Amino acid sequence: MAGGGKFDFRFQISDFRLIRTGAGRMGLMGRMGGRGLAEKMRVYVASSWRNGYQPLVVEALRGANFEVYDFRNPPEGTAFAWSEIDGGWQSWTTAEYAEALGHPLAEAGYAADMEALEACDICVLVMPSGRSAHLEAGYAAGAGKHLVILIPQACDAELMYKMGDICFAIEDVVVSCEAWREEHEADLFPDADPGE
Questions:
Q1: pLDDT digits (tens, 9 = 90+) for 108-160
Q2: Which helix (H) or strand (E) holds 35?
Q3: Is residue 21 situated within a structural domain?
Q4: Looking at the domain assignment, is residue 8 inside a domain?
Q5: CB 28 within 8 A of CB 120
Q6: Which of 29, 32, 96, 123 could bridge to 140 as Cys pair (CB 3.0-4.6 Å)?
Q7: What is the pLDDT of residues 49-81, one digit of tens each?
Q8: The whole model's pTM is what?
């Protein structure tokens, strides 16, 4: 802004990725203080309980040596489903929904998911998915994390999917995550031996 008092908003997509990735790196390095050299890059898989691709993505990424958060089987056993609070959850009023958000099961599920989302290096949105998964992916992109979007079948066109790497097969998701890991591993794990 110096000089003329105007902002220059011109940039290229590659500039945006570097800025976004750079912000994520800074934030990750600040949060990862105690991470050891043997730790893996962390991936948060955002999807729906009804999505059949989700477990396949989790398995493929674990097979590629990533630490993957699986909301269906979280480490602390805090998997959450609204039906655990009330079998009639689909017919709740807005007041009943607001009350359910404060239920201990909802609080524990939210805390586990958010802790994993904040700690991840990469977020993979697996389509088709609903509003929560899209909020998780948006949060990750806004926090500067690498976002990968798997679209394995036809879906509505979404402009904001440009925030991430769009993939059409699980193998492409793994390739995208591996490429990002290779490019950023030295920045995220500065004390690691490259030969490990």
A1: 999 999 999 999 999 999 999 999 999 999 999 999 999 999 999 998 889 99
A2: none
A3: yes
A4: no
A5: no
A6: 123
A7: 999 999 999 999 999 999 999 999 888 777 788
A8: 0.77
Lookup: tokens for 106: 């909802």
Tracing tokens 């039906």 back to the chain, one arrives at 83
Number of domains in the chain: 1
pLDDT on residue 74: 86
- CA 126, 137, 54 angle in degrees (round to 5)? 20
What residues make up the domain containing 139? 13-30+37-73+119-188
The sign of the torsion formed by the CA atoms of 82, 86, 92, 95 equals negative
Buried b (16+ CB within 10 A) or exposed e, 105-138: ebebbeebbeebbeebbbbbbbbbbeeebbebbb
Q: Are strands 42-46 and 67-69 parallel, antiparallel or unpaired?
A: parallel
Average pLDDT taken over every residue of the chain: 80
CATH of residue 41's domain is: 3.40.50.280
Whether the link from the prior residue into 128 is cis, omega within 30° of 0, is yes
CA 114 to chain centre: 10
For position 123, what pLDDT does the model report?
Answer: 98
- Is 58 a member of any domain? yes
